[in-house]
Hints:
Blueprint: E1 8-11, H1 12-26, E2 30-34, H2 44-49, E3 54-56, H3 61-73, E4 77-83, H4 84-88, H5 92-100, E5 107-111, H6 129-134, E6 140-142, H7 147-159, E7 164-167, E8 172-175, E9 188-191, E10 196-200, H8 204-217, E11 222-226, E12 229-231, H9 235-245, E13 248-255, H10 260-271, E14 276-281, H11 291-297, H12 302-316
Parallel strand pairs: 2-3, 2-4, 4-5, 5-7, 6-7, 10-11, 10-13, 13-14
Antiparallel strand pairs: 1-8, 6-12, 9-11
Helix pairs in contact: 1-7, 3-5, 8-12
Amino acid sequence: xxxxxxxxxxxTRSGFGAGLHELGKTNSEVVALCADLLGSLKMDxxxxxxxxxxxxxxxxEANMMGIAAGLATGGKIPFTGTFANFSTGRVYDQIRQSxxxxxxxxxxxxxxxxxxxxxxxxxxxxxxxxxxxxMLPGMTVxxxxxxxxxxxxxxxxxxxxxxxxxxxxRPVWPIFTTGRKFEIGxxxxxxxxxxxxxxxxxxxVWQALEAESILxxxxxxxxxxxxxxxKPLDTEAILASVRxxxxxxxCEEHQRNGGLGDAVAQTLAQHYPAPMExxxxxxxxxxxxxxxxxxxxYGLGPEDVVKAASMVLDRRS
Length: 317
């Protein structure tokens, strides 16, 4: 039985839109830039109430990053909005040279990430972006798990000084973090356990919670930790959990290479080597399909988390 109550279901991109609108009311330095995807990024409310602080760039993502860097230089807090593929792959040079290299206070907000984008297919389902952004010096990387956490992360970024990447998605998803505190760089232990540590981010946190319920029925006590901030990584929380359980599983809607799994593996290799499995996309592009069907096909379902947990438990033994 799931230990979390679903209070509602909404897309995480709407959490970004709600948070941005709240910021518009409380912080006059916040400005929003959009690359012709106003409705998709849920930036309508901000534009309507604060038209003088909204810039519609059009389909010119590289230009958007340059303008955002300039606004940050002038003391503004720019939030850029477009699809994750266009927020990273298309403009990596501009982010590296104009934002990350000089530590500009730009918030790169990216929707429609991962295979749960669905029917738009492989060209838009970027699965490399966490790794790309994580490798940039000084870049904070946040992957919230539901509407409420995305809203809170958006609010928190306005007070955080420095470049940041906020990754969220398109599908309607359970809301289960209502009332839980969000803090950049501080992991959130969702379920306490003693047999296996499960670290997850984004939509995969819910998959991990469903897997925990199945494992409980099998007599296995799983600890589920929401690693919403990939960088800076909460190494203390990771090590404390794995020192207790002796094994780990990571879950992410991203390639095995470069993302949460790699970050946790590096931490364990340096400080506490332990059996580990990664639930992630295995060196493959996505395809067009229904979000839940794609999660299942690419090995990102609750049953895949359960299988990975069983594997590390066998290896630990």
